[in-house]
User: What shape does this take?
Amino acid sequence: MDRILVIEDDATVQKALRRTFESAGFEVVVAPDGATAVQTFQATSPRAVLLDLRLPGKSGQDICREIRGFSPNVPILVLSAASDVVDKVLLLELGADDYVTKPFSPRELLARVRTALRRLIPSIDKQEVYNFDEIQVDFGKMELLRSGQPVALTPQEFKMLRFFLNNKDRVVSRNELLNEVWGYHSYPTTRTVDTHILRLRQKLERDPADPIHFRTVHGTGYKFVE
Assistant: This one.
């Protein structure tokens, strides 16, 4: 489960961010002030940081600089007021990855964090042919072979498989799958996700009843293991 560090002194915003990210399958750690932010970062090793610009104890600029010094790759997304235009330029120069103006849409912020995290994962989006276990899949031709024999997948099953391959060994929630595979414009249910997982297991697992690759993480979602 990916861990998100929220550096924010406003309890209402803390609550909203915790609800948004925990419902999407993330673990959320909160640092309520600038004085403890860097120490919390070092103690928890988060995958991404949400950083409020105006904090008691230490400025957002200083925190951004220090975190970037410890970890050059961890995504840092800054949250601040619309009036902080000059600070926005400065923070991007200091190494922040993105900047979100308050008030913000929690769903948009979640999407931006996911985008930032995907940049850290070697992508197969440009890789047409991929192999695992006894499976060979050609995304360009939308063809899949299992032990050399063709297996028919629907376009949505190909899309879900590609998403899992791009996020292997990472727990993904049902809501994330709905958003990333079906898109915000569609309104399927979590039952739709479970049904597609079942079909992928039936088609690709050696023993669908005891899956090796498409694993259930109870209470959270699924994880693909090569």
Q: What stands out?
A: The CA atoms of residues 156 and 200 lie 11 Å apart.
